[in-house]
Design goal:
The chain is α/β, with parallel strands linked by helices and about 375 residues long. The chain contains 15 helices and 11 strands. It binds S-adenosyl-L-homocysteine. Its EC number is 2.1.1.386.
Length: about 375
């Protein structure tokens, strides 16, 4: 490479967004494309990729593994649920776990993943660990997809201040041919196909250098059979779990019940409010008030387009307002949360005041009448 040309570039190469963000975005895009439910990040370091992935709504199980417990522990609290996660539990379930251990060892907690990411990990492995790595990841874990990124040494001359390796802990840095031959051999050995790409574009005129970070995306060629999943999978646990967070989810009956109760009361209040404002228009005649049967038109704007039967109409009787459960159930959000009318009844039983036959939510408006 022409030295002057090289020097010129080393002055100006600055990736935007920064390279680590580009690598993480690459993984996020892959997650959005393949929609894996279970993702494991090997060599997760400070968990920054996991922190980003927890917002991908397809993921239900996230695991991190690192040989250095301290680096994981530094920011692992940021993987815990936030108050808002409890206030508005998500529809999906999500469990985040961090393990302390080496990718050179097999542990049953690493089985069953759809996607395994190894971002800037392999160049940190000792020769003996690198030898065991393919058998652990491709042979034992055998996920549908594996992503491996590693520095491309051909790019190093373009980076300012890089003498031998980009990081003092790197045990090696491969050029494109070295990475590709290792990846192709690994893929062939374990029944995967592999495609090469990268992040960190080389400058114009330097395309031959390739991407600053080279990436191999491995896709398993054959579905795993029940036999291959079970055979030769040792059950002995060698990793230590250092963190586990189970996010509140509507899949958990406890959170679903709370959400349904709040939604039912909220919905009933909206209907009651609309009903009462119409009711007031009828003046003080108690005869007329008690017989008041509003048209559903008076709150159809919040119901959306609903087919409302006669027996679904709310009504006032004396000091009580009755909002039929069937009406509440026809609200899209309540409907989606409960699925069936029976489930709605079961979830609110004993938690919401109902009419004696259990068919309507009942509000006493005596106090409200006094105020008016
Ligand atoms: N994946 C991270 C950074 C990786 S740095 C990111 O994208 O930002 C490499 C990480 O691999 C370090 O945290 C290091 O502790 C870990 N590591 C090194 N050898 C390992 C091994 N044998 N098993 C698991 N993790 C290892």
């Amino acid at each position: 490479m022409d030295k002057n040309f090289q020097e010129e570039f080393t002055q100006i190469i600055k990736f935007k967004p920064p390279l680590y963000k580009q690598r993480h975005q690459f993984v996020k895009d892959l997650v959005e494309k393949y929609k894996p439910k279970k993702v494991a990040d090997l060599g997760c370091a400070d968990c920054s990729l996991l922190r980003m992935l927890k917002f991908c709504s397809c993921i239900e199980v996230l695991a991190g593994l690192d040989i250095c417990a301290n680096v994981m522990k530094e920011k692992m609290h940021t993987l815990s649920p936030l108050p808002v996660d409890y206030l508005q539990p998500s529809e999906r379930s999500l469990t985040v776990t961090l393990h302390h251990g080496s990718v050179a060892h097999k542990d049953p907690c690493m089985l069953g993943f759809d996607l395994v990411t190894c971002i800037e990990l392999i160049e940190h492995l000792e020769e003996s660990e690198l030898k065991k790595f393919p058998e652990v990841v491709f042979g034992f874990m055998a996920p549908s997809i594996v992503v491996i990124s590693t520095p491309n040494s051909e790019f190093n001359p373009l980076l300012p201040g890089v003498m031998l390796y980009r990081h003092p802990d790197h045990k090696f840095e491969w050029n494109q041919a070295q990475f590709q031959s290792w990846a192709l051999e690994t893929a062939r050995c374990y029944g995967y196909s592999v495609e090469f790409t990268g992040v960190g574009q080389p400058p114009t005129g330097m395309e031959k250098a390739g991407f600053c970070t080279q990436i191999g995306v491995f896709v398993r060629k054959y579905p795993q059979t029940g036999e291959s999943v079970q055979c030769e999978k040792p059950t002995e646990a060698v990793y230590k779990t250092v963190f586990k967070a189970v996010y509140p989810s509507l899949k958990d009956e406890k959170y679903l019940q709370n959400a349904v109760i709040s939604e039912v009361i909220f919905t009933a209040q909206i209907i009651k409010h609309r009903l009462m404002s119409k009711h007031e228009e009828y003046g003080d005649d108690p005869e007329r008030k008690s017989k008041f049967q509003p048209s559903m038109d008076c709150f159809s704007d919040c119901l959306g387009k609903l087919v409302v039967e006669k027996n679904m109409e709310p009504f006032v009787s004396g000091n009580e307002v009755y909002i039929p459960l069937a009406t509440i159930f026809s609200f899209p959000k309540v409907n989606r949360l409960c699925g069936t009318f029976e489930k709605l009844c079961k979830l609110i039983a004993g938690k919401v005041t109902l009419s004696s036959d259990g068919s309507a939510v009942m509000f006493n408006i005596e106090h409200e009448n006094e105020e008016n």
